[in-house]
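Researcher: Quick test of sequence recovery. C-alpha coordinates follow.
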Protein backbone atom coordinates (compact mmCIF):
# COMPACT_ATOMS: atom_id res chain seq x y z
CA UNK A 1 0.00 0.00 0.00
CA UNK A 2 1.27 3.50 -0.71
CA UNK A 3 2.05 5.73 2.23
CA UNK A 4 1.54 9.44 2.05
CA UNK A 5 0.74 12.29 4.37
CA UNK A 6 3.62 14.71 4.79
CA UNK A 7 7.14 15.79 4.04
CA UNK A 8 9.50 12.85 3.87
CA UNK A 9 13.07 12.67 4.97
CA UNK A 10 14.36 9.38 3.62
CA UNK A 11 17.54 7.52 2.81
CA UNK A 12 17.97 5.04 -0.04
CA UNK A 13 20.87 2.57 -0.19
CA UNK A 14 21.53 -0.52 -2.26
CA UNK A 15 21.86 -4.24 -1.49
CA UNK A 16 19.86 -4.33 0.71
CA UNK A 17 18.20 -1.05 -0.17
CA UNK A 18 17.09 1.07 2.77
CA UNK A 19 15.47 4.46 3.10
CA UNK A 20 15.84 5.87 6.58
CA UNK A 21 14.34 9.08 7.84
CA UNK A 22 16.59 11.41 9.78
CA UNK A 23 13.84 11.71 12.34
CA UNK A 24 13.83 12.86 15.97
CA UNK A 25 10.98 10.52 16.87
CA UNK A 26 10.73 7.26 14.94
CA UNK A 27 7.31 6.64 16.49
CA UNK A 28 6.01 9.27 14.07
CA UNK A 29 7.65 7.63 11.06
CA UNK A 30 6.36 5.09 8.58
CA UNK A 31 8.46 2.03 7.73
CA UNK A 32 7.66 0.17 4.53
CA UNK A 33 9.44 -2.71 2.87
CA UNK A 34 9.44 -4.08 -0.65
CA UNK A 35 11.63 -6.02 -3.02
CA UNK A 36 12.29 -6.29 -6.72
CA UNK A 37 14.69 -8.06 -9.03
CA UNK A 38 17.56 -6.16 -10.61
CA UNK A 39 19.89 -7.92 -13.04
CA UNK A 40 18.85 -11.28 -11.61
CA UNK A 41 19.35 -10.19 -8.00
CA UNK A 42 16.67 -9.37 -5.48
CA UNK A 43 17.04 -6.24 -3.35
CA UNK A 44 14.99 -5.31 -0.34
CA UNK A 45 13.86 -1.74 0.13
CA UNK A 46 13.27 -0.54 3.70
CA UNK A 47 11.95 3.00 3.74
CA UNK A 48 11.65 5.54 6.54
CA UNK A 49 9.32 8.44 5.83
CA UNK A 50 8.10 11.07 8.26
CA UNK A 51 5.92 14.16 8.25
CA UNK A 52 5.25 17.09 10.55
CA UNK A 53 3.26 20.26 9.95
CA UNK A 54 5.65 22.23 12.17
CA UNK A 55 4.85 25.13 14.45
CA UNK A 56 3.59 27.66 11.90
CA UNK A 57 0.92 26.03 9.75
CA UNK A 58 -2.45 24.76 10.91
CA UNK A 59 -2.47 22.02 8.26
CA UNK A 60 0.17 19.87 6.63
CA UNK A 61 0.55 20.80 2.96
CA UNK A 62 3.26 18.18 2.36
CA UNK A 63 2.79 14.65 1.06
CA UNK A 64 4.99 11.66 0.43
CA UNK A 65 4.55 8.46 -1.55
CA UNK A 66 6.56 5.30 -0.92
CA UNK A 67 6.29 2.36 -3.34
CA UNK A 68 9.48 0.28 -2.94
CA UNK A 69 8.19 -2.65 -5.00
CA UNK A 70 7.63 -0.26 -7.93
CA UNK A 71 10.92 1.61 -7.51
CA UNK A 72 9.19 4.89 -6.66
CA UNK A 73 9.69 7.46 -3.87
CA UNK A 74 8.14 10.93 -3.91
CA UNK A 75 7.88 14.04 -1.76
CA UNK A 76 5.62 16.97 -2.61
CA UNK A 77 5.38 20.34 -0.88
CA UNK A 78 2.16 22.31 -1.39
CA UNK A 79 2.95 25.96 -1.91
CA UNK A 80 2.66 27.91 1.32
CA UNK A 81 0.84 31.20 1.01
CA UNK A 82 -1.42 29.99 -1.80
CA UNK A 83 -4.87 28.41 -1.82
CA UNK A 84 -5.12 24.66 -1.44
CA UNK A 85 -1.46 23.68 -1.36
CA UNK A 86 -2.48 20.45 0.31
CA UNK A 87 -4.89 19.74 -2.58
CA UNK A 88 -2.05 20.08 -5.09
CA UNK A 89 0.41 17.85 -3.22
CA UNK A 90 -2.31 15.25 -2.62
CA UNK A 91 -3.20 15.20 -6.32
CA UNK A 92 0.43 14.48 -7.16
CA UNK A 93 0.84 11.49 -4.86
CA UNK A 94 -2.58 10.08 -5.72
CA UNK A 95 -1.89 10.12 -9.46
CA UNK A 96 1.66 8.81 -9.08
CA UNK A 97 0.25 6.06 -6.88
CA UNK A 98 -1.41 4.58 -10.00
CA UNK A 99 1.91 4.19 -11.83
CA UNK A 100 1.79 0.38 -11.86
CA UNK A 101 4.60 -2.04 -12.69
CA UNK A 102 6.98 -0.81 -15.40
CA UNK A 103 8.63 -3.08 -17.97
CA UNK A 104 11.83 -1.03 -18.31
CA UNK A 105 13.55 2.10 -17.03
CA UNK A 106 12.23 4.22 -19.96
CA UNK A 107 8.74 2.83 -19.32
CA UNK A 108 8.94 3.78 -15.63
CA UNK A 109 9.99 7.31 -16.52
CA UNK A 110 7.21 7.58 -19.13
CA UNK A 111 4.62 6.35 -16.63
CA UNK A 112 5.88 8.86 -14.07
CA UNK A 113 5.65 11.79 -16.47
CA UNK A 114 2.19 10.71 -17.63
CA UNK A 115 0.84 10.54 -14.06
CA UNK A 116 2.45 13.85 -13.16
CA UNK A 117 0.86 15.46 -16.23
CA UNK A 118 -2.52 14.11 -15.09
CA UNK A 119 -1.99 15.66 -11.66
CA UNK A 120 -1.01 18.94 -13.33
CA UNK A 121 -4.24 18.99 -15.32
CA UNK A 122 -6.32 18.26 -12.22
CA UNK A 123 -4.65 21.09 -10.31
CA UNK A 124 -5.20 23.44 -13.26
CA UNK A 125 -8.91 22.60 -13.25
CA UNK A 126 -9.12 23.33 -9.53
CA UNK A 127 -7.37 26.64 -10.12
CA UNK A 128 -9.86 27.58 -12.85
CA UNK A 129 -12.77 26.70 -10.56
CA UNK A 130 -11.35 29.15 -8.03
CA UNK A 131 -11.10 32.11 -10.39
CA UNK A 132 -7.52 31.42 -11.42
CA UNK A 133 -6.04 31.16 -7.93
CA UNK A 134 -2.39 30.07 -8.01
CA UNK A 135 -2.40 26.48 -6.74
CA UNK A 136 0.61 24.23 -6.98
CA UNK A 137 3.19 22.01 -5.37
CA UNK A 138 6.85 21.22 -5.67
CA UNK A 139 7.82 17.60 -6.25
CA UNK A 140 11.01 15.57 -5.93
CA UNK A 141 11.09 11.91 -6.85
CA UNK A 142 13.45 8.99 -7.16
CA UNK A 143 12.64 6.18 -9.58
CA UNK A 144 14.78 3.04 -9.80
CA UNK A 145 14.78 0.15 -12.25
CA UNK A 146 17.39 -2.49 -13.03
CA UNK A 147 20.16 -0.66 -11.13
CA UNK A 148 19.38 2.59 -12.97
CA UNK A 149 17.95 5.61 -11.20
CA UNK A 150 16.49 8.95 -12.16
CA UNK A 151 15.66 11.84 -9.88
CA UNK A 152 12.87 14.03 -11.22
CA UNK A 153 11.90 17.34 -9.69
CA UNK A 154 10.06 20.62 -10.05
CA UNK A 155 10.55 23.45 -7.56
CA UNK A 156 12.90 23.40 -4.59
CA UNK A 157 12.23 19.99 -3.05
CA UNK A 158 15.48 18.08 -3.27
CA UNK A 159 17.20 14.78 -3.96
CA UNK A 160 20.66 14.07 -2.50
CA UNK A 161 22.98 11.12 -2.90
CA UNK A 162 25.61 9.96 -0.44
CA UNK A 163 28.36 7.92 -2.11
CA UNK A 164 31.69 6.95 -0.56
CA UNK A 165 31.06 9.30 2.34
CA UNK A 166 30.37 12.37 0.17
CA UNK A 167 26.95 13.99 -0.18
CA UNK A 168 25.89 15.48 -3.52
CA UNK A 169 22.75 17.41 -4.36
CA UNK A 170 21.45 15.77 -7.56
CA UNK A 171 18.53 18.13 -8.06
CA UNK A 172 18.95 21.84 -8.66
CA UNK A 173 16.55 24.31 -7.09
CA UNK A 174 14.06 25.99 -9.38
CA UNK A 175 14.16 29.26 -7.48
CA UNK A 176 14.72 32.90 -8.20
CA UNK A 177 17.66 32.98 -5.82
CA UNK A 178 19.32 30.02 -7.59
CA UNK A 179 19.06 31.87 -10.91
CA UNK A 180 20.71 34.91 -9.32
CA UNK A 181 23.49 32.68 -7.98
CA UNK A 182 23.96 31.03 -11.37
CA UNK A 183 24.41 34.42 -13.02
CA UNK A 184 26.80 35.66 -10.34
CA UNK A 185 24.49 38.48 -9.29
CA UNK A 186 24.53 37.53 -5.60
CA UNK A 187 26.87 35.49 -3.42
CA UNK A 188 26.06 32.31 -1.51
CA UNK A 189 26.17 34.29 1.72
CA UNK A 190 23.73 36.88 0.35
CA UNK A 191 21.43 34.07 -0.79
CA UNK A 192 20.93 32.96 2.81
CA UNK A 193 19.03 36.15 3.66
CA UNK A 194 17.77 37.23 0.21
CA UNK A 195 14.29 38.74 0.58
CA UNK A 196 12.79 36.65 -2.26
CA UNK A 197 14.65 33.43 -1.53
CA UNK A 198 11.34 31.55 -1.14
CA UNK A 199 10.12 32.37 -4.68
CA UNK A 200 10.18 29.27 -6.87
CA UNK A 201 10.22 29.42 -10.67
CA UNK A 202 8.74 25.98 -11.43
CA UNK A 203 6.03 23.91 -9.76
CA UNK A 204 3.38 21.40 -10.68
CA UNK A 205 0.00 23.00 -11.34
CA UNK A 206 1.01 26.58 -12.08
CA UNK A 207 1.22 26.25 -15.88
CA UNK A 208 -0.56 24.16 -18.55
CA UNK A 209 2.46 21.89 -19.07
CA UNK A 210 4.61 20.19 -16.42
CA UNK A 211 8.04 21.74 -15.95
CA UNK A 212 10.54 19.21 -14.64
CA UNK A 213 14.24 18.43 -14.71
CA UNK A 214 15.77 14.96 -14.64
CA UNK A 215 19.13 13.61 -13.49
CA UNK A 216 19.95 9.97 -14.31
CA UNK A 217 22.65 7.54 -13.30
CA UNK A 218 23.66 4.09 -12.13
CA UNK A 219 23.08 2.83 -8.60
CA UNK A 220 26.24 1.60 -6.91
CA UNK A 221 26.49 -0.62 -3.87
CA UNK A 222 26.28 1.49 -0.73
CA UNK A 223 24.58 4.47 -2.37
CA UNK A 224 22.26 6.46 -0.11
CA UNK A 225 19.58 8.81 -1.45
CA UNK A 226 17.81 11.50 0.55
CA UNK A 227 14.50 13.02 -0.54
CA UNK A 228 13.16 16.01 1.34
CA UNK A 229 11.33 19.26 1.13
CA UNK A 230 14.00 21.88 1.36
CA UNK A 231 13.22 23.38 4.79
CA UNK A 232 13.03 20.01 6.54
CA UNK A 233 16.21 18.85 4.86
CA UNK A 234 18.21 21.87 5.97
CA UNK A 235 16.92 21.84 9.52
CA UNK A 236 17.40 18.10 9.94
CA UNK A 237 20.88 17.95 8.47
CA UNK A 238 22.54 20.88 10.20
CA UNK A 239 25.22 22.80 8.36
CA UNK A 240 26.13 20.52 5.45
CA UNK A 241 23.20 21.85 3.40
CA UNK A 242 23.37 25.67 3.24
CA UNK A 243 20.52 28.13 3.14
CA UNK A 244 16.85 28.14 4.04
CA UNK A 245 14.27 29.27 1.51
CA UNK A 246 11.31 29.22 3.87
CA UNK A 247 7.87 28.26 2.57
CA UNK A 248 7.88 28.06 -1.25
CA UNK A 249 5.97 30.67 -3.21
CA UNK A 250 5.44 30.38 -6.94
CA UNK A 251 4.65 33.02 -9.51
CA UNK A 252 3.00 32.29 -12.83
CA UNK A 253 5.47 32.11 -15.74
CA UNK A 254 5.44 35.10 -18.05
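Model:
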Amino acid sequence: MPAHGGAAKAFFAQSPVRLYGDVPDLCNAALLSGSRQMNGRFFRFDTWAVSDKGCVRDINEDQYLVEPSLGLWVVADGMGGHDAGEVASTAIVEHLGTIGIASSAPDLRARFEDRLARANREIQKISMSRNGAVIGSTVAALVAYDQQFACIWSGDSRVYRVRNGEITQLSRDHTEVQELLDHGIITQQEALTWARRNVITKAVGVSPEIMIDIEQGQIEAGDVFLLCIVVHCRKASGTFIPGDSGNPKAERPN
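The first strand starts at residue 10 and ends at 13.
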